[in-house]
Amino acid sequence: MADAKSPPLLSVQELHAHYGRSHILHGVSFHVSSNEVISLLGRNGSGRSTTLKAIMGLVPPTDGSIRLRQHELAGLRPYSICRHGIGYVPEEREIFANLTVEENLRMGMQPAVNGASVWTIEQMFDYFPRLKERRNTKGASLSGGEQQMLTICRALLGNPLLMLIDEPTEGLAPKIVAAVGEAIADIHRQGVAVILVEQKLAIALKVSSRVCVMGHGRIVFEGSPEALGASPQVLAEWLAV
Ligand SMILES: Nc1ncnc2c1ncn2[C@@H]1O[C@H](COP(=O)(O)OP(=O)(O)OP(=O)(O)O)[C@@H](O)[C@H]1O
Ligand SMILES: [Mg+2]
C-alpha cells in the first residue's frame, strides 16, 4: 500500500491537451504514489485515453506539468518518457504481426531504471501460460485475448516504475478478464504503480486503491473505491451506472 507521506511517483498538474484546435484536456491534476493502482474512470470521450497519451508524450501537452520523481516529462519524446520508467499498453493492441510471441516479448526488454522491479519472460509465462504454449506463434495468428496478454507482458519487460494500461479487458472472454485482473493485482504487489483505464467498474474498484472520475476533460471525482460506491450522484452523473 502507498505511504500517504511519501512524495508521489507521478504528479500531473493542470494538464491541457489539444487535437488540432479541439481542446480536450482542461487542466487535469492528479498524482500516483509508488506501489499504488489508480483507475481513471469516465464515460466514452471523457478524456481518459488522451490523459494517458499526454503522459506518454504521444499527444503533446499544451500546458501543465507531468513529473515522474524529479523529472519533468512534458515536452519529452515518447521513447525518452519510456526510458524514464513508464510502460504503456495502448487501447489498440500494437504487437508485431510478423514476430513470434517470444520475439515480441524480447522487443520490450529494457534495463530497469533505478528502483524498478526486474521482470523475466518466464514470469510472464507464469502469469499467462497460454503465451508459453504460443511462444513460437506469429503475432498475426493470436486471438484478441492473447494479443492483450502479450501487450501487457511486453510493456512489463521494460521494467517500468509505472504502467499505463488502457482498457485491457475490452472484448475479452470472462476467464481472460479474470486473468488480466489478477495479473494487474500482482504487478501492483510486486511494487509497480499502475494507472488503469477500465470500463468494467467491478474490476476497477477491485484492483484500485484510488479512483479518479473524468468528465469533459477534467477530474470530477477523486477518492477511494468505497467513497465512489457511496456517491450515487457521481455514479449517475459521470458514469451512467
Ligand atoms: N485523434 C483524435 N483526433 C481528434 N479528436 C480526438 C482524437 N482522439 C480522441 N479525440 C476526441 O477527444 C475526446 C477524448 O477522447 P479520449 O479518447 O481521451 O476518450 P476516452 O475517455 O478514452 O473514451 P473512449 O476510449 O471510450 O472513447 C473525445 O471527444 C474524442 O472524440
Ligand atoms: Mg479511451
Can you put this structure into words, describing what you see?
There is one protein chain. By secondary structure, this protein is of the alpha/beta class. The chain has a single domain (10-239), classed as Rossmann fold (3-Layer(aba) Sandwich). The protein is built from 10 helices and 10 strands. The strands form 2 sheets. A 6-stranded mixed beta sheet has the order 6-7-8-3-9-10, sandwiched between helices. It has a 4-stranded antiparallel beta sheet with strand order 2-1-4-5. Strand 7 (162-166), helix 7 and strand 8 form a beta-alpha-beta unit. It is globular, with a radius of gyration of 17 Å. The chain binds adenosine-5'-triphosphate and magnesium ion. Magnesium ion (MG) is lined by residues 48-49, 91, 166. Residues 48-49, 91, 166 line the site of magnesium ion.
